[in-house]
Write a structure and sequence with these properties.
The protein is α/β, with parallel strands linked by helices. The protein has ten helices and ten strands. It has one domain: Alpha-Beta Complex (Spore Coat Polysaccharide Biosynthesis Protein SpsA, Chain A).
């Protein structure tokens, strides 16, 4: 495939370069960046624009781009396992974004349904994808972060979607920040069931609230690359609440900003919606990482369980 034959219809194909980015493996960076994952004996496939010799860079103007406005590279990571039923809509919600410096990475856990066929269908627009066994959501997310090249990193689950123009709204909000740049930006997210909006979640990050419970929508969030470089990757001992534990690490020092807009939609029924383990993991994260007392964490966990059961009853 040549520049001339590369389709410019997608958010991921308008700003590309043939120059492979330099991998800076600095000792102070707490994860090892890489362009491709090492060989895995259980791998089912691998591909994307990188395998075709196309790459991304922060602010790269690529072909046919003449403006001088800086364009931070945003990496979107989707992890999936047997998610063929809704993966199409997730992928298209990324590829059809109005912002045109997006890097899209898909990490599949070795699906046995039609997931791999769907991913291959978009091989010409996904920056990098791989299908191989993993040790769970956070292991797959860690693979995605290590593969990312973006200034900002986001996580979009299989079956979840971005609103049209969602990424562009994030970037505009980041550019509008005065003073010290933020490390984290959150927004609002619609929770849906059968295309019906049940409620909208996501509040402004405040340590006084966040240390008690996760009041931000992780789906509707962007993380600066520097946050992972300084705080490391996700703790894979967590199966559901590793994202909460990660954001607890900076404690009150997290530089966060808020976009008061709905940027994404999430279908209820995910792991954190259906598994009571989430409450036990949240309590563990608050006491071990967030410095919360065990007694307060236990009380808050009991209250959270009651609210969760009430919501289930009201929704169903």
């Amino acid at each position: 495939m040549t520049f001339e034959s590369l389709k410019l219809d997608y958010s991921t194909t308008r700003r590309v370069t043939r120059v492979s980015p330099e991998i800076c493996d600095k000792p102070e960076v707490k994860f090892r960046p890489q362009l491709f994952l090492p060989h895995h004996p259980g791998r089912k496939g691998e591909g994307g624009l990188r395998r075709l010799g196309y790459f991304k860079a922060s602010g790269s103007h690529g072909r046919n781009c003449v403006d001088a406005t800086p364009h931070p590279l945003v990496t979107v990571i989707t992890v999936v396992f047997n998610g063929a039923a809704n993966l199409d809509q997730t992928i298209l919600s990324v590829l059809n974004q109005t912002y045109d410096n997006i890097e899209y990475i898909i990490v599949d856990g070795g699906s046995t349904d039609k997931t791999l066929g769907i991913i291959r269908r978009y091989d010409h627009a996904i920056d990098y994808w791989v299908s191989e066994p993993d040790a769970g959501i956070y292991d797959a997310w860690n693979k995605g972060v290590s593969l990312s090249g973006g200034d900002w990193i986001a996580f979009l689950g299989a079956g979840d979607t971005y609103m049209h123009g969602g990424i562009e709204a994030y970037v505009a909000s980041i550019k509008g920040c005065q003073g010290v740049p933020p490390q984290y930006i959150s927004s609002r997210v619609n929770l849906t069931s059968e295309s019906r909006v049940l409620r909208t979640i996501g509040e402004q990050w405040r340590w006084s609230i966040f240390r008690k419970h996760m009041n931000v929508a992780h789906l509707g969030s962007l993380h600066s690359r520097g946050l992972f470089e300084s705080r490391g990757l996700f703790d894979t001992s967590y199966k559901i609440c590793g994202d909460y534990e990660f954001l607890l690490r900076p404690r009150s020092g997290l530089r966060a900003t808020y976009l008061n807009a709905v940027t994404a939609s999430m279908t209820i029924g995910g792991v954190s919606d259906t598994n009571p383990l989430a409450f036990r993991e949240t309590a563990r994260a608050k006491t071990t990482t967030g410095g919360r007392s065990k007694l307060l964490s236990h009380i808050e966990s009991l209250l959270a369980v009651c609210k969760w059961k009430l919501r289930k009853w009201l929704w169903y």
